[in-house]
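Researcher: Structure for this, please.
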Amino acid sequence: MTMKRLETRQMTLIGLMSALMCVVGPLSVPLPFTPIPISLTNLVIYLTAFVLGCKSGTVSYVIYLLLGTAGLPVFSGFTGGLSKLAGPTGGYLIGFVLTAAVCGFAADHSGGKRTIQFAGMVIGTLAAYLFGTVWLCVQMNLTPLQGLMAGVIPYLPGDLVKMILAAAIGNSIRQTVKQTVSASS
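Model: Predicted structure, token format:
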């Protein structure tokens, strides 16, 4: 009975974090010089890593990705569908699977140390940047430098702020969720 209750709670948390991505993901700011908008999706991925850890956090993001791929308007600019995934931003959307896994792994194995968690967010974000930028370059016939200028450089300051925010509040959120789950047992 206890195992079933834990599974239900974990599934509920996965669903809630996927829903949060579906709410926040479409909110974006388009930039005139690139097809890649500014989005808060990666902030939600960072926070999801703290709440759910590696496995469940990655599952939560994959659910969001599948919902968007199926056509629900949960991607930036209230778009969805396979064409969005196959377009210039698709590499970043797919690369965020790596972000979720790496950030979640760091959150699970950090012992609460913010430096390890922050390093996980940096490495996870770099993985998404690499995958997304290669994809963008192929899609738009860009040089690597043009790809970096269109898909990475403009986003570095904002992503750094998102990582700092997630590192500042992530452990508190993780503890609150654990206490809430423990209290209701």
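Researcher: Any notable elements?
Model: The beta strands are 28-29, 38-39. The CA atoms of residues 33 and 77 lie 16 Å apart.
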